[in-house]
Amino acid sequence: MKKDIFKNNSIINKGILKIDSYMEKNNTQKMRFNFYVLCFFILVVINPVNIFVIKNEILATVNIFLDFWFLILFSLMGWFSTDLYHSSLVIYDKSLELKDWKCTLKRIIKYSSIGYLKTIVVVNFLNSIIFSTQVIYFFEEEYKFIAEGSIVMIDLLLIPSFVKLFETIIKNREILRNVLRHAFVRQSVTMEDLFENYEFSKNFVFLNFDNYFLKSKHNIFFITGNNYSLDEKDMVKKLNHEIVDIYKELWYFHVKIIQEYHKLKTKKQKRKCLNILLYYFMIWVNFFDF
């Protein structure tokens, strides 16, 4: 995310930095993806030059094989898009030793990156057009059967990929739409004191907010057992309060950014601010048991 969206608004900037600190980045994966896209668009430039200017069959054959390779590559990316191309918010990663065992608890929110998915759709669409055009232009007269068979094969290859990609994009949009329509999101600006009054359920199974009749989901906190020693119970209690402090700080920025959102003048600023708030909304949908 860009950190200079609102240079004169420290609250929004701090809120961006806070979310950015939880983002798990895979720079190697991103660089590899960008490299593939760059290579593809270089090929996009070479193909028409060869068709209309150079008209070299050897270069055309090489281009067709490269087009086919990119079709396979980006089709596989489309099939496994939700596994390969997602982003993560790691809210916390805590561990402690209980009964001589190291117990680890993480809270990770994964979401598919719409930008990656749209890029794959565009690349596959352009690639199918270029591949079909080249095959027809250079090979239809002498190898008509091979040309037609190749086009049919490409169509069959792309259909599952497009279906999976569009399903993922529609699903993500629907999730975000439901989040934005949720009454909790619309009321959260009036609940600034939410984390000022809370109490844990028995054995720290979940967190209760009695003032607003809300509670957290299970499996967010370490739990205690009756057979734990007092020291072990104290360790669990301390770690759980650290986790609450993380959410408390996130809630503070969430409410403040919503307040700033309503002060913004232009649609462009509001849209950028809303993109930031969506990360916070995902955190609370993941946290609360509505």
Can you give keywords for this protein?
single chain; 290 residues; mainly alpha; three-stranded antiparallel β-sheet; 9 helices; 6 strands; elongated
In brief, what are we looking at here?
The chain is mainly α and 290 residues long.
What features would you describe in this structure?
The protein has one domain. The chain is mainly α. The model has no long low-confidence stretch (mean pLDDT 82). It starts with 9 loop residues before the first helix and ends with a helix. Helix 2 runs antiparallel to helix 3 and helix 5 packs antiparallel against helix 6 (144-181). It is elongated and about 80 Å long. It has helices spanning 10-22, 27-54, 57-79, 81-84, 114-139, 144-181, 183-187, 230-261, 267-287, and strands at 23-24, 86-98, 101-112, 199-200, 207-209, 214-215.
Which spans have pLDDT < 50 for at least 5 consecutive residues? Answer: none
- By helix and strand content, what is the structural category? mainly alpha
* Secondary structure tally, helices: 9
The residue fraction in helices comes out at 55-70%
Main sheet summary: 3 strands, antiparallel
Number of separate strands: 6
- The general outline is elongated
Mean pLDDT: 82
What's the gyration radius in Å? 26 Å
What is the strand content? 5-15%
The separation of the N and C termini measures 29 Å
- Strand order across the largest sheet: 1-2-3
Strands, helices and their partners?
Blueprint: H1 10-22, E1 23-24, H2 27-54, H3 57-79, H4 81-84, E2 86-98, E3 101-112, H5 114-139, H6 144-181, H7 183-187, E4 199-200, E5 207-209, E6 214-215, H8 230-261, H9 267-287
Antiparallel strand pairs: 1-2, 2-3, 4-5, 5-6
Helix pairs in contact: 1-8, 1-9, 2-3, 2-5, 3-5, 3-6, 5-6, 8-9
